[in-house]
Queue: 4 jobs
Job 1
Amino acid sequence: MTEIDAARFATLLHVYGRAGDTPAHLAALGGGDTPSRRAALEHLWSAVIHQGTPWTATPPAAVAVAALIGDPRLSGAANADLRANLLGFLAAVAEAGRSSDGLANLDTLASPVGFDVDSALLAALDADDEDAIYADEVLANAVYARAVLGCREITPTLLEAGLVHDRDTCRDLARDSG
C-alpha cells in the first residue's frame, strides 16, 4: 500500500470535519482485524464519500484504496466482500467526479477571483471552526468544487488501473455497495 500522508489529511475535510482520522482507517483496511476493517469501511462510506458527496479528503483516500486493491493481503475468497466494497467505493468516487450539482463552472468556483481559498480554509481549520467554512458560501462552494475536481483528476488513474470499467458499472457498484 502507498504511504499515507497523515499530516496532509489533517488539512483535508470529510463530512464530519478534519480528516485526521482517515489515515488510521485506511491502514486498518490492509492490516486490521475484522471489526477494524468494518469500521474503516463505514468511515469511507459515511465520512469520506457521504451519500455520494465528495470532500477534499475523498481523492487522496481513493488513491490509497486503489493502491490497496492489488495488495496480496486482500486476495482470496475470504476478502472478496471487502474488495467488492472497496471497488464500490472507488466507483462512487468516480461517479462523484462527474457531478457538478448544477454548479456552472467548477474551475471558477474552486479558485474565485479575489478570494484566497487556501488562507480562508486554513484560518477556519486553525480556529477549529469548520462551521465557518460552510457559513461562507464562496468558501463552501470552493471546497466542494475542489473535491469534485479532485475526483475527476484521479478517475483516469482508476480507469487505467482497470478498477472502474465504465459509467454504468460505476453507478451499479456504488449503488450496491453504499
Job 2
Amino acid sequence: MRALRAVLLLLAVNACASRAPVEEPALLRAGDFGAGAEQARLKSDVEALAAAHLEDTPLDCGAFDLEQINLEHQPVCHLTREKARQFVRARFESLGYTVIEQEMEGPAWPTSNVIAELKGSTHPDEVVVVGAHYDSFHAGADDNSSGVAAMLEMARLAAGKRFARTIRFVGFDLEELGLVGSTRFVRELPGEEIVASIVFDCIGYKDARPGAQQALPGFPIPNTGDFIAAISNEQSRPRLEELYALGSRLDFVPLRGATSPIDGSGPFSGNLMRSDHAPFWLAGHSALFLTDTANFRNNNYHRDTDVPSTLDYEFLAGVTRLSAAGIAYWAEGPLP
C-alpha cells in the first residue's frame, strides 16, 4: 500500500442511521459462509508468500532515478512479484478454478493480473470483485501478503459453491509502482455490472495499546489500532453500510467505516486513492478499500521488518470472515 499522507476529509458512517437492513436468512447464510475462514490457513499462506518474496529476484531498480525517490517509503530495489504470482496462480488452480493471466504491456513495465472466476448461476453479468496486490517490498507480510492470503482463503470458501452473481478474484500486479495492474484491469473490463468490490491492502496488523494508532485527519478513530478500516466513496457507500450492518450483527472484527466525498478524487481525500480500489472509483465502479491503516499503525510498513511474526492472525481471520460474509451477501449465495 502506498503511503497515506496529507489531510483526509472523510465522512464517518459508524453512527449512520440509514444503514441498509440485513434480512435474517441472508445474514445467517453470509455469516455461516464467512465463519469458515480458517486462521491457520491464513497464517500458513502469509508465511509462504513472505518466503516467496524473500527468495525472489527483486525488480531491476536501475530504471529508476533513486535520487528522486524517498527510499524509506519506496524501497524499489526490494520489490518482488514473480514467485508470489506463481503462488497465487497455483493456489487458484488447486482449488479447481480456471486461471486467466491478464498480461499487458506498458511504457514502463509489463503486468500480469492473476484472475480466477466463479460464474454466477442466475446473474452471471453481475460481478463481485475481490482483489489484492501481490507485489511487495521485502517480505511484505502485512503489505500485502495479508491481503493476498485473505483473497485466497475466500476463494477456497467459494470453490465449488453456487452464487447468483459472478465472483471474480484478482491478484493485482505492481500496485506499489502506481496501481499499474489494477488500472489496466479496470480499463479492460467488459460491459458488465460491478455490483461490489473489496480491495485488501494491509489487513493483518493490530496494536491495541493506547497511542499505537496515529490519527487520520478528518477520520474520527480511537488511538488504539484494534479495528479494520473500510473506506468507500459516495457511489460505494451503500456497500459500506451493508458491510457495517453485517459486521454489527456478526461481530467478527471491529470495523470503522468512512466515506470519501464524491468519487474520492478531491484535493483533501486524494491520498485515500493510493491503492487498487482507486481505478474502480474513477471509472464509476463500486469498491470498498479495507486496510489496517498501514503506516498510521504499523511501523514496519515498507521495511524489512514487515515479517509474518509481527501480524495478529486472529485479527486477520476476523477481517477475512467479515469480508467473506460481505461477498456472500452481495453475490447472493451460497445457493442450495
Job 3
Amino acid sequence: MGKGGESIPDEEWERFLREVEAGSKGAPEEPSARARMVARRLKETERPEPWRSHQPARRRRGKGWYVVGLLAAVALLVVALDPGRVTGWFGGGDGDSAPLAVESERPDQPPPTEAVARQATLDEPFKGSPAVRWGDGTDGIGLPEARATGWMNKGQVAQALEKTRDFLDASSLDPGVLRGEMPKKAIALINPHQQDVQDFLATAFRSPSRENDPLLLFSRFEKSKVRLVGDVVKTRGRITYREGKRGAVEVTTDVTYVYPVVRAAAGSDEVVRTIVRREVVMSWDDPAKVVIEPGTFSFVSYKVDSTNGGCDTFTGYLTPKFSAEQATSSPGDGPEVDPYNRSESMETRMREAGDAGCGTATRS
C-alpha cells in the first residue's frame, strides 16, 4: 500500500465530481497533459511462443541414466566441499528461477520463452510466464538515486520519487482499486488545478469512452465478473527523471503489471493473465512558478497498452477473456506483440500500432 496521499472521504469525492462538472470559475491557467494516447488493447492468443523471441530454447540433455548418476555424485562432492556454491541451482541464486534484479535500463531483447508452455494454476498463477521472476508489487519498480535537480534539492527529489511510486501503488496495485473502487489515494496526489485532467477524471468514471477511459491511468476489474488470484501482482519497470519546464522535476515511469485472474463465480479455477504496460510522465512543479497544491504533481502525458484486458470495450474496467470467449473471438487486425517485451519504448510500440485495431499477443 502506498504511504503518500490521504484517502478522500466519499462526501468530498462526490463534491469534487460535481465541482469539476460545473467548472471552476476564475481558475488560473495551468499546464495541460499532452494529448493522451488511446489504449491499444491486445487479444490473448493460445500460441506458446512469440515470433519475436530472440533467445532459443535450452537444449535437452539425453546421455542416459549413468550420466545423471555421475552428475549427482559430482554434485554431492561439491556440496560437501562448498555447500554455498550450489544455492542458485534450486532458485536461490542466479538460476533460471531466481528473482531478477530491478530493471535499471531498457533491456536489449525480450525475455526468453519456455520451450513447452505451462498452464497457470491457482497455486502458481504466474507459471509459464517471465513474470514468475519479476518483483512483487512495488518491489519490481526501481527508484533511481536522488540528486539535486531543477528547483528541488536532493532530499526533495527523493521525496518526489517516493510519492511517484506511491501513485503507481495507489493507481495500479491497491487491492480496493483493483476490485473497482475509486482510486482516491491516487487522485489525491494529482494537481487539482490541472483542469483538463480533472475534467478527464470526472468524465472517465461517470461515462467511460475511448477518449475518457480510466484505464489509461488506473487498473480496475469488475468484481462481479472476475477476481484476482492471490494477493500478488508482478511488476517490472523503472522510474527516471530530469529537469523539465520552469525548473520542474519531470519524472517518467514505465511499468508492466501482470494480473492473474479467475472468474468471480465460486469454484472457478481457470487462471488467465491480464498484462498492462503504462508510461506516465509527471511534473513536480515549483509552486513559485505554477499554481499547484503542495505534495501533488501535474501530468505531462500518459500511455497504456494492455493484453487480455478487453478490446474496443470501454466500460471503465479491464475485461479479460477466458478460454470459452477466446475460442469464439475473431482474430485482431493489428500487429502481433509480445507483452513481456520491454526492449522497445512505448512511443515505438504505439507508432508501430498506428491506427490499427485489436492486435494479437503472442503469449500471456
Job 4
Amino acid sequence: MAEIREEYVDYNGFKTYCKIVGENQPGKKTLLILHGGPGDCHNYLLPYAEMADKYGRQIVFYDQIGCGKSMIPHQEDDFYTYDLWVNEFYAVRKALGLDDIHLFGNSWGGMLGMLCMMKDDTGVNSFVINSSPVLIQTWLDEANRLIGYMPEDMQKAIAEAERTGNYDTPEAKAAYDEYYKRHVTGVYEKDYPQYLKDSFAGVGECYMIMQGASEFVVTGKMRDWDIREGVKNIKVPCMALSGTDDEGTPLVIKEGVDLIPGCEWTLIAGAPHIANLTHPNECMEAVENFISKYE
C-alpha cells in the first residue's frame, strides 16, 4: 500500500491541510486533486488515491481553506472570494514543491482549476475537468429540468423547501435523497460510504456564502459565474469527464468543451456527479489514459 503523509501549509494566517499519497515511479508526474463545494473537503474523492498503487503515481489532496481539516473560525462574508482559493492553489503547490504536475478538479474544484489555468498554468501538464460548468445559469436550468422527471409529490416537496427554506421535513428529505441518488451520489443516503459521510459532514460556512442554501438556487457569490470568454484562453491540454446521469448534464459540459481549445471529453455511462463513487475504475482509467499522454 502506498504511504500516506499529512502536512499543513501556512496560508493567509491559517493552515491548509494536505494529504500526499505515494511517490512517483520513473516517468510519472504528481496528480493534484481539487475538491468541490465551495465548502466540501477532499474525502469524497479518496477513491482516486488508489491510482498511487494502481499506476505508480503520487496523488495529492488538500482541503481548501474553510473546509474539512482546513476549517477556520467564523469569518465575514467578504473573506471568501475566488481569489482566496486561487491564491491558495499556488501557495500549496509552492510549499509542497509541486512545480511539475497534472491537475484534476471535480465540480467547484474544476471551476477553481479553470480560474487558475486562466491566470497562470506554469508547471501544469494536463487538466481533467470533472463535471464543472462555465456558466452557472446553464447548470441551474438543467438541475431544474432534471427535477421535472421526478415524481410529482417530490417535485412539490422540493419547491416547498426552496420556498420556505425548511429542508428538514420528511417529504423534503426524501425528495432530495432521490435527486442525489439519481444525479449526484448514485446511492441513497443510507448507503453512503464513510468517506462520503465524512465529506458532507465537513461542509464549511463558505458553501452558504458562495453557493447558497441548496443545489437548485444560487443565492451566493457564484450566482454570476460566467467564464465562457476566459476559458477560450486556456492553453493546457484539457479533458472533460462527466456521467450520463450527472447533474452536470451533457449540455452543461458541452458548453465548456466547445469553448476550451482542443478539449477532449470522456462521458461515463450511468455515472452521477460524484462518478468515482459508483464508477471508480472507469474514472481512474479515463484520468490515467489522458494525463499519461502529457508526462
